[in-house]
Design goal:
The chain has helices at about 1-25, 115, and strands spanning about 50, 55-70, 75-95, 100-110, 125-135, 135-140. The protein has a domain at about 35-140. A hairpin with a 6-residue loop joins strand 1 and strand 2. With about 160 residues, it is of the alpha+beta class. A 6-stranded antiparallel β-sheet has the order 1-2-3-4-5-6. About 0% of the residues are buried.
Length: about 160
């Protein structure tokens, strides 16, 4: 009889323990909200932090499309279309020597005019600027004060 009561007691204790565990609510920890884009105000508007770093990045650019219609020399209608896409990447980070800047800008042009029929294409990819700057030192391919901002978009200064 001792074994029988021992088996019944252990079965009752096991049922009580398993019942108590089933009654307990399972509470899952709330995940931390993920901040995908952090705004970087240190270098002006438009910058954001590259995830996992303290480097700020600004991406800019524009797209331009221009079409013109006019009669050509033979009296039939002629048209010309020009498009331009410009993209720039500006990365900045603070160091003990000053602000470290990396800049890259490219221009993509496509032109549909009479020179294309002659075998000369006006569609080009042009590196506009690419440089690294630390403090007051700047190295790379960039415009100086006389190259940019004085002339119009279609002018060419040598």
């Amino acid at each position: 009889m001792n074994i029988k009561s021992l088996l019944l007691g252990s079965a009752a204790a096991l049922a009580a323990v398993s019942g108590a565990q089933a009654a307990d609510a399972i509470v899952a920890a709330e995940p931390e909200p993920v901040e995908y884009v952090r705004v970087c105000d240190a270098f002006g508007t438009g910058y954001f932090y590259i995830p996992g770093t303290e480097t700020c990045l600004k991406i800019g650019g524009f797209i331009r499309v221009q079409t013109g219609f006019s009669p050509n020399a033979s009296g039939t209608s002629d048209w010309d279309s020009f498009s331009r896409a410009y993209i720039s990447f500006d990365a900045k980070s603070d160091t003990e020597y000053g602000t470290l800047t990396g800049f890259f800008a490219a221009e993509f042009n496509a032109d549909n005019d009479a020179s294309v029929a002659a075998g000369v294409s006006d569609s080009i990819i042009d590196l506009d600027e690419a440089y690294i700057q630390l403090g007051g030192l700047k190295a790379g391919f960039f415009y100086n004060w006389w190259d940019k901002g004085i002339n119009g978009e279609t002018d060419t200064l040598g």
